Amino acid sequence: MAGPSKRKERRQAAASASTSVPLSHPDRSAPRDGKAKTLYDLAAEREQLLSNGTPFSVADGKDDEDDDEPLGPLAACFFLAVSLTMFHFTLDVLVHNQYRQSIEWGMIAPRTLKTFPVILALLYTARRLTTALPALLTQLLFVGLSVGAGCYLIRASNVDDYYAVMKRAPPLGALWVWSVVELRLGWALLSLAVDYTYMYLAGYSFW
Question: ∠ at Cα 43 (39, 47), nearest 5°?
C-alpha cells in the first residue's frame, strides 16, 4: 500500500503537468493559409458568379449534373413506368367499355403487371442510349416516334375491327404519351399538329 508521501508526490506531479499547458487565446494575428477559405469567402465568390451570370459549381469544380434527376435515372424511369402502366391499364378498361365488352379483370390485371417491366426496360434503355446523342437528334427521334404512334393509333381506331383495337390501343397510347412527354414544348406541339393534320386529311376521328 502506498504511503501518504507517495500520494502527495503524485498530486504535485499532476498539478505541475496541468499548469504546464498555457491557458491563453490563439494568435489571431498570424497570417492565414491562402488555400483555406471561410464561408464568407465562398459566399462572396458565389455572389460574384451570380452577378456575372455564371452558374454555381460544386466543391470539386464539376457541374452538378444530377440536379434535374435528384433520385437518379433508374428511379426516374421507375416512377415514369408506373405512370405509363397506369395509363395503359386505364386505356385497356376504356376500350373494353367502349365496345360494350365485359371487363375481365382476371385478364386485364395480369396483362398490366406484365406490361410494367417491359415499359421500365424500354424507358431505361432509351434513357441510356439518348444521353450519348445530341439533344437535337434526340428530339427528332421522339418526334418521329410520336407521329408514328399517334397516326397508327388514329388509323387503327377508325379502320381495324374492335378486337384489334382492344389489343393495340393501350400499348400505342402509352407509347404516344411517353414520346410526347420526352419532347420539349415546341417539338411536342409540332408532333401533335402533324397527328391532327393526318387525322383531318384522312377524314378520321376519335369518336
Answer: 170
Query: Which whole-number Å values give the CA distances from 182 to 1, 79, 92, 172, in the listed order?
Result: 85, 14, 23, 16
Structural contact between residues 112 and 119, judged by C-beta atoms closer than 8 angstroms: no
Measured distance CA(82)–CA(71) in Å, rounded: 15
Q: How far, in whole angstroms, is CA 148 from its chain's centroid?
A: 25
Q: What single DSSP character describes residue 68? A: S
pLDDT at 66: 45
pTM over 0.85: no
- How big, in percent rounded to 5, are the helix, strand and coil portions of the chain? 70, 0, 30
Element (H, E) at 18: helix 4-18
C-alpha cell read off for 66: 444530377
For 56-113, write each residue's pLDDT tens digit.
Answer: 554 444 444 444 556 688 899 999 999 999 999 999 988 888 776 677 888 888 999 9
**Cα 198 to Cα 178: distance, rounded to the nearest angstrom:** 20
Dist CA 166 CA 161 (whole Å): 9
Residue 84 in contact with residue 174, Cβ under 8 Å? Answer: yes
Instruction: Give CA separation, 163 vs 109, 168, 173, 203, in Å.
Output: 18, 9, 16, 22
How many Å apart are CA 149 and CA 195, to the nearest integer? Answer: 9
